[in-house]
Amino acid sequence: MERIETAFTRMLGVVYPIIGAPMFLISYEELAVAVSKAGGLGSIPLPNFRTIEDLKKTLKNIRRGTDKPIGVNIHLSGRFEWKKQLTVCLDAGVKFFITSLGDPRLILDDVHANGGRVFADVISLNQGLKARDRKVDGLIAVASDAGGHSGTVPTIVLVPYLKSKVELPVIAAGGISTGAQMAAALALGACAVIVGTRLIATSESRAISTYKEAVVTSGPEDIVCTDRITENPANWLAESIKDFDKRPELGSKRWLELWSAGKSVAQVEEIKPAGEVIHEMVAECITVCKQLGQSISKA
Question: Which residues are 237's β-sheet partners?
Fold first, then answer.
């Protein structure tokens, strides 16, 4: 299959500008390895790991599965042992860091010294400008279509807005489950896309079977954005949160029964291997780009 070359693929040395989203309690070594082996960039969220030893074990398992680049989402709020996590990740050869809930300058020097890149999650122009001033390498445009915590601006507006005003590489996150949607994001100026919701419904995802099936059977009207769960706006499958206020017994295990997803559930039709998802998206993206080129040349 043809390569899709962008600033992101040149920066990270991957074949395709697709990142498997680092989804809490879903993205572990199986999914990260599958995405990276398929030519994208697999990633894991560091809040998945309650101990440093668990993180070390997972990174070792990933390296046994692939020598391709991988990424991590690191939370810098102080809630987690991010300094120790950073050291472990750098020692394991991680080259791509997505920062959330904190100042990316805390890790920039160490990551850059190891040849890595730091991109910051942002949901607005104000956040994008702050991240630029803090010298990040690029931005993750978290749009209103994204699963989990999301912004208020749709991908089709947020990506070109950030691209024109901030002048950094921008990765699109939200509403991307197909190759056509990927092509649209690239046309908007994104250098890569983050795919989350579509990868929930894969054999390598650690989502429970009923969660995967719910993603397959739901439509965009079944996604609800609310701040009731985490005190920040986030997108959830409506059925899974309908009794949230009446279920104090959920406690610390609530994440097992409260299911986040984005509106691109509309394009998820079946559960299949993650590598197959990536290859199908790439093939469709290439086909759509060629068709558009031919249509424009004939116009």
Answer: 223
CATH, residue 282: 3.20.20.70
The residues that bridge with 292 in the sheet, in sequence order, are none
Print the domain residue range for 57: 7-205+270-298
CA angle in degrees (0–180, nearest 5) for 15-18-22: 130
Q: What is the pLDDT of residues 123-180, one digit of tens each?
A: 999 999 999 999 999 999 999 999 999 999 999 999 999 999 999 999 999 999 999 9
| Interval 141-150: pLDDT, tens | 999 999 999 9
Token reading at 232: 């920040």
Considering its fold, how many domains does the chain have in total?
A: 1
The pLDDT of residue 246 is above 70: no
Indicate whether 251 pLDDT > 50: no
Q: Are strands 117-122 and 223-226 parallel, antiparallel or unpaired?
A: unpaired
Torsion of CA 195, 270, 16, 206, to 10 degrees: 60
Angle (CA) 97-231-130 rounded to 5° is 40
**What average pLDDT does the segment 228-241 reach?**
87
Could you give the CA distance from residue 46 to residue 184 in angstroms, rounded to a whole number? 30
Residue 82 exposure: Cα atoms within 13 Å on the Cβ side = 24
